[in-house]
Amino acid sequence: WDTSHKIARTEVDSLDAAEQHYLNPYDESFYILLSEPERYVNHSCDNNTKVVNFCDVAVREIAPGEEITSDYRSGGVEIDFECGCGAATCCSRYKK
Question: For the whole prediction, is pTM greater than 0.70?
Fold first, then answer.
């Protein structure tokens, strides 16, 4: 990931709502504003990558043409989203 686009947590409100969707925690003081291509990795509860040190790492073999996906809950994303991935373990089936 390009981690150079840091936004102070105190400045988040200066971003429009669409850009706020692409924030990922960096540390206690900053978010990273995701850029291409990582901003286009979709969520799946049956993900084929995970985030390790701000890199997407495959957790299983990815078939040619298969969409790259990540479990947003494991990468630290702090957005609300409604999941409709359809996986047997889909988080939309659980209420906390």
Answer: yes
CA 8 to chain centre: 18
* 71 burial type by CB count under 10 A (0-12 exposed, 13-18 middle, 19+ buried): buried
Name the residue among 50, 73, 3 with its Cα closest to residue 31: 3
Interval 30-74: pLDDT, tens: 999 998 888 888 889 899 999 888 888 999 999 999 999 988 877
Two tokens, residue 87? 């996986």
Q: Could you write out the DSSP letters of every residue in 20-48?
A: HTTEEE-SSSEEEE--TTGGGPEE-TT-S
